[in-house]
Amino acid sequence: MRVPQLKEKPKGSQKWIQDIINICPELLNGLIQQKFTSLSGREICWKSPLKEDDFSEYRDTAFLENINLQELVAELKKFWPKNGPQWDALGRTSDGRAFILIEAKANVPEIVSSCGATDKESQKTISERLYETQRWLNCRAPRFDWKYGFYQYANRLAHLYFLREKSNKEAYLVFLYFVDDPTYKPTSQEAWNSALKLQEKLMGLSAGSLRHRGIIDLFINTSDILELPETSY
């Protein structure tokens, strides 16, 4: 599904992910390449959210088509029910071999979510996939069912598992946290650190295991984006 995002004055993470992708992608690319040396020297091309595409975000099989992974459409339908993650940003390298998925947040309350599936078969499938993902990440015993609490985070992890482990693709998952957002609820670096440390502990995860599987946290202060010229937007 393609989902246009045409709010006249977006706020929070929606505003900042649109700005950084369309105004200063080199800022984001540089930070990602610093974290993933395997991407150094490789051009990252962002496929969403683009101004010329109505800042659209993509989910389900459309997200695969957006990054030229159409061959995985049938397998994704088996792997996950409809209404899967709606990606804040999607990119791939110019050589077509690596894929970058981004989930962006601008304040701590945004990280809290629960699964909204009501169909029993869908719930069963989701539970099975989350359990597989936990094993893939060498997860310690989590304090709660991953369908609740931090579900958005969990289902993004599951989709990276689908790409990297099930489909043997070079894929990376970036959780992008904007610091000191003046448009809604300013969140300091310290507040992010505390919240994410708790999330990691409750989910039974470790930073080392996440990094090993191509998963990182990035922090960008919104002032670094505000200071850049917008003439190219």
The secondary-structure class comes to alpha/beta
Question: Compute the gyration radius: what is it?
Answer: 17 Å
Count structural domains: 1
Query: Helix tally?
Result: 9
Brief synopsis:
Helix content is 40%, strand content 18%.
What secondary-structure arrangement, pairings included, does this model have?
Blueprint: E1 2-3, H1 12-22, H2 25-35, E2 44-48, E3 57-59, H3 61-66, H4 73-79, E4 86-87, E5 89-93, E6 98-105, H5 120-136, H6 151-166, E7 170-179, H7 189-203, H8 207-212, E8 215-221, H9 222-226
Parallel strand pairs: 6-7, 7-8
Antiparallel strand pairs: 1-3, 2-5, 3-4, 5-6
Q: What are the salient characteristics of this protein?
A:
single chain, 233 residues, alpha/beta, 18% strand
Commentary on this structure:
The protein is α/β, with parallel strands linked by helices and 233 residues long. The chain has one domain. It has 9 helices and 8 strands. It has a 5-stranded mixed beta sheet with strand order 2-5-6-7-8, with helices on both faces. A hairpin with a 4-residue loop joins strand 5 (89-93) and strand 6 (98-105). Helix 5 packs across helix 6. The chain is globular and about 50 Å long. The relative contact order is 0.17. The model has no long low-confidence stretch (mean pLDDT 95).
